[in-house]
Amino acid sequence: MTRSVRLCHVDELQERCARGFDPQQSGRDALFLVRLDGELHGWLDRCPHEGDTPLPYRRHGYLNRDGTRIVCFAHGGQFDIATGQGLAGPCLGLALTRVALHVGSAGEVLADLDPGAAGRP
Ligand code: FES
């Protein structure tokens, strides 16, 4: 069953910045948001190269230096921020899993979570 969870306010995320969230308080971020060209994109923090591997080398460290691509720091896989498609490295031809987002009337960013998909064991 899908449920909506508040992540942050829409103004809290700067352009070409990423932020991880642990909405189920598992002790590890399960998803992250990235703002690009004013749009927010939500992705599960799971690299498609190797199962459940988290992408960042440190908390919130999902992007390359100039903030143009999502990077998995395990083996250097790179992804398009807007589409989640693998662009380079071992993730070429693979894709991140999108998290559906909504912005509420007060500017709150809500994620639609399927506990089976966004949760951590
Ligand atoms: S686990 Fe992400 S590139 Fe290998």
Structure description:
The chain is mainly β and 121 residues long. The chain has one domain: Rieske [2Fe-2S] iron-sulphur domain (Rieske Iron-sulfur Protein). Helix content is 3%, strand content 34%. It has one helix spanning 115-118; strands spanning 3-9, 18-21, 31-36, 39-44, 69-71, 78-80, 86-88, 101-103, 108-113. The chain has a 3-stranded antiparallel sheet with strand order 1-9-8. Strands 2-3-4 form a 3-stranded antiparallel sheet, with no helix packed on it. A 3-stranded antiparallel sheet has the order 5-6-7, with no helix packed on it. It starts with a strand and ends with a helix. Bound molecules: FE2/S2 (inorganic) cluster. FE2/S2 (inorganic) cluster binds at residues 47, 49-50, 53, 72, 74-75, 77, 89-91.
